[in-house]
């Protein structure tokens, strides 16, 4: 088994249930509701589960890329304690709403940056959730594009777009800047270039072919922690769940509770191994019994990751090591996963970056 260095992040998993947890912060699209279903409300089962959590004295908040008013108007089956919207730029708690805004100079600079990249389109949203500006040539072209994505872009439920000359838009309170890409493979290069041009800001992936501009130090995580502090709740009393790059940041700051993902991972692993056992036992098909597993430990913590090893060890017991070969790439050490591999190698060293982990410099003796 090849192991990579363990990342310097704190991840506490689902073991111990919700003991000690006082606040749960949940992403909306892809977590509370299906990602590609517009205008979706919570299903009855999710709403019932949230009610059960509230009965256990948990504060329940939504941390989303959408504007808080979207959650408050669309979700009728449950009333959340607070909504952190625009990936941290707008916070609605009780009767109060706080919004961070971008300066006119910043808007103009990002606009110029987007115009220099044919693959980019910029959209602005006001602090009230209205799509108020775009680098698109026409309102009709933008509406046509978004209709194809079947997504709501006027997050406040306002049907009319205030798309006009970008110079007029800067007179509004802009709390969200989004960059839309034609091809997502361009994102790493654009993100790096953006960082050079705007050192006090960063790009965060918040949707399909969409990245959002955030000030350094501002994110879902920062606002979750700020709200929790106001409520007298510490970081180790918070649980989070989400599926985008901005959600990964909050998991580094607070507890990481996504038990269903860990269980689903084990179910998939058992399924693959069970299927291989059937094929090998029946001896009807010409197969090469090799299983390659990539970063399986991601949804686990150090205390429950041993379940991975228990499943694999049981498979070897039933199938036999001479009949099955497993290659595993992971951040965790094999001892953490309760494994005893025949071979283990660190793929990242001072001479190897991990990009091409099997590359070696030719030594002078081999020339």
Topology:
Elements (H helix, E strand, L loop, with lengths): L1 E2 L19 E4 L17 H12 L3 E5 L4 H7 L7 E4 L4 E4 L2 E4 L4 H12 L4 E7 L4 E4 L4 H11 L16 H4 L4 E8 L5 H11 L3 E7 L2 E6 L4 H11 L7 E4 L3 H9 L1 E2 L2 H24 L7 E5 L11 H14 L5 E6 L14 E2 L21
Parallel strand pairs: 1-15, 1-16, 2-3, 2-12, 3-4, 12-13, 14-15
Antiparallel strand pairs: 4-5, 5-6, 7-8, 7-9, 9-11, 10-11
Helix pairs in contact: 7-8, 9-10
Give your account of this protein's structure:
With about 375 residues, the protein is an alpha/beta fold. The chain has ten helices and 16 strands. Helix 9 runs parallel beside helix 10 (about 305-320). The protein is globular, with a radius of gyration of 24 Å. Residues about 1-15, about 150-165 and about 255-260 have low confidence and may be disordered.
